[in-house]
Structure formats: structure tokens, C-alpha cells
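Technical note accompanying the year-one report. For the benefit of new consortium partners, we illustrate the data format agreed upon in the data management plan: each record pairs a sequence with a C-alpha cell string. No post-processing was applied to the example shown here.
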Amino acid sequence: MTTATANTLQIAIQRLPHNPDVPLPAYQSDHAAGMDVHAAVPAEQPLVIAPGKFALVPAGFSLAVPEGFEAQIRPRSGLAAKHGVTALNSPGTIDADYRGEVKILLINLGAEPFTIQRGMRIAQLIIKPVPKVQWVQVDELPPTRRGQGGFGHTGH
């Protein structure tokens, strides 16, 4: 039997003036890992991404991610599977000291132009802890069974 405790992290979010109506990021099911992010493009000017092209899509909000965390922007599997549209820099990172509008860098890898309408779900947002690293320079690393094998070294 597996048990888990729910952790809740409160994060300040600011709805921007050009977004009085588009939903803020929200979980779509009880056990969803990511919150869906919606497009805040103007209703009268949908954004069309041609095949092979990319665009920054405004999300209509800013965040105050706590120190020691990042907000990750990830693709929505449905957009990728149905239309070939995905997040170009996946996962994208929103740092704890960034206070600008969240924008999603989408690319259309499909064969047809893709139209982004106001309020469309375009990405997922996940909050993750990020430890600070302090490098310890050594003359030799401890050995492992794998060693330096990489890039298909197992033959699979």
C-alpha cells in the first residue's frame, strides 16, 4: 500500500491588465502533476503558427516563485499528439527572481497552420524545488559500474 501526504505551496500570482477573463493556471484533475496554462492572445487577433515556425504566446499572468523553486513550462500531450504543437524549450524555466509576464514558446511541428485562440490550453506549469549546488573539485571521481559509457552504450 502506498500513502502520500499532500503538500501545498502558496505562490503569489498577478493577473495582468490584458487578462481579465482567461483562467489562471489550474489543475484539471485531482491527481494532475501540472496546471494547465491558457493563452491570453487578443480575442479579435488569434495567433496562427505556420508549420515549422514558433511564437511566444502570452499567458496573462506573472508569478513570484519562491527562492529555492522554479516554475517549469511543459508541453500539453494533446496538442503534441493531435497537432504537432509543443513547447520549444521544454521544460522552460521561470526563475524565482523573474517578475515579467509568463509566455509560452510554442513550435508547430505539424503539417498545417495552427491557430491559438484566447483561453486555449497551451501548456502545463509545474513547480519544482531547485537545490543550490556547491562544486567540490576533485582529482578523480568515485568509480561506478557504468563508468564513462553513454549515448547508447547498453546497445538499446
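Partners are asked to follow this layout when depositing records. Residues 12-129 form a domain with the Deoxyuridine 5'-Triphosphate Nucleotidohydrolase; Chain A fold (CATH 2.70.40.10).
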